[in-house]
Amino acid sequence: MKRGSYWRDECGAGSAEFALVLIPFMAAVFAIIYASLMFYANQTLQFAAETAARCYSVNASTCGTVGNVQTYARNNYKGPNIGASFTAAATGCGHTVTGTGSFPINVVVYRASVPLSATACFP
Are the CB atoms for 101 and 82 separated by under 8 Å? Predict the structure, then answer.
């Protein structure tokens, strides 16, 4: 083999480029998946708060007490496990239900917790 031919040889260049591009590509894919799950958790938290506020305002037999409203909201939350908790109160705008939770992001080198909250008021 000649002295400069080693540096001009392109065998295996495609696999080296693939290895360099794979890491940022997979990071972007997982970021999209986590962001989608976080938005889904927030939307289902909002839905549970809205239905519980409506039940608290309209249906006294099912949601007559604060404890019943909290149970009703927890049963209507269908999202990922974020430790959702709900509070209910009668306020100036009607019956208000607030839901809170913490969405965990666990990637190999990065761990974070994103707080989520939703508030609904039904007259």
Answer: yes
